[in-house]
Write a structure and sequence with these properties.
This protein is α+β, with helices and mostly antiparallel strands. It has helices at about 20-30, 60-75, 85-110, 110-115, 130-150, 155-175, 185-200, 205-210, 215-230, 240; strands spanning about 1-5, 35-40, 50-55, 55-60. This is Glutathione S-transferase.
């Protein structure tokens, strides 16, 4: 059986990490039996989550996990797509993971109130005399990576404006379709859903969340995907939250 290692539930989400969510949804898409265990990033071969253990193999990084699942189990996540649509899906996935995701990181880790409410609690179990220093160091490292991503070099309103341009592109791509590339979900939907749900969770207040909620088709898309892949999770539909 496959074992998926992630952070677990939190922040009003079935899984804290968008990348773990991406892999979990793809496991569900493929109909593969798996179990889930909590882990910390240092346990992973690449120092990041998710990673999976599949019999004797350990695979880290969500993109390489997907490639492993496709190669070993013969499941094509993009089966309904033409060659051109596959290329477009890959390009959108890169945009989500290398642009929109970093806006999410900024909202969670760089904004002081959200950091204190959320990621700061990752260190609650650390020795009391080290706890605050570990929190400060972690926030500094993430803020530094946010800067290196490019978004962190701009003023807060400017980085949100840039992220919203990518969200607009996603909204246009989705249109009135049920899924990003058409009538059936594909691999890229796991990535889009995971990141958008991370932004839209009511746990955090942010300008990014407020701007994202203005794209009605994206909010209903997250609700649709949540119901499809996490029907047991108590997710309040975004449109109801805004009402």
């Amino acid at each position: 059986m496959i074992t998926l290692y992630g952070f677990g539930t939190g922040f009003g989400l079935p899984e804290i990490s968008p990348f773990v969510t991406k892999t979990e949804v793809q496991l569900k898409m493929a109909g593969l039996v798996y179990r889930k265990e909590k882990a910390k990033p240092p346990a992973s071969p690449k120092g990041q989550l998710p990673y999976i253990v599949d019999e004797a193999e350990t695979i880290a990084d969500s993109t390489f996990i997907r490639a492993h699942l496709e190669a070993k189990y013969g499941f094509d996540f993009d089966a309904p797509l033409s060659l051109q649509a596959r290329a477009q899906a890959w390009a959108f996935e890169r945009m989500i993971e290398h642009h929109i995701y970093w806006a999410l990181v900024g909202a969670r880790w760089v904004e002081g109130d959200n950091f204190a409410k959320g990621p700061a609690h990752f260190f609650d179990g650390a020795p009391a005399h080290l706890r605050e220093k570990m929190r400060e160091d972690a926030q500094f490292r993430v803020a530094e990576n946010y800067l290196l991503s490019g978004l962190g070099r701009h003023a807060p309103d400017e980085d949100i404006d840039l992220a919203v341009r990518s969200l607009f592109a996603l909204s246009v791509q989705l249109g009135d379709k049920p899924f990003m590339m058409g009538e059936a979900p594909c691999g890229m939907d796991a990535t889009a859903f995971a990141t958008l749900a991370g932004i839209l969770t009511p746990f955090f207040e942010s300008a990014l969340r407020q701007r994202t909620e203005q794209f009605a088709n994206l909010t209903t898309y997250v609700d649709r995907m949540m119901l499809l892949y996490y029907p047991e999770f108590a997710w309040a539909p975004v449109q109801q939250q805004a009402a």
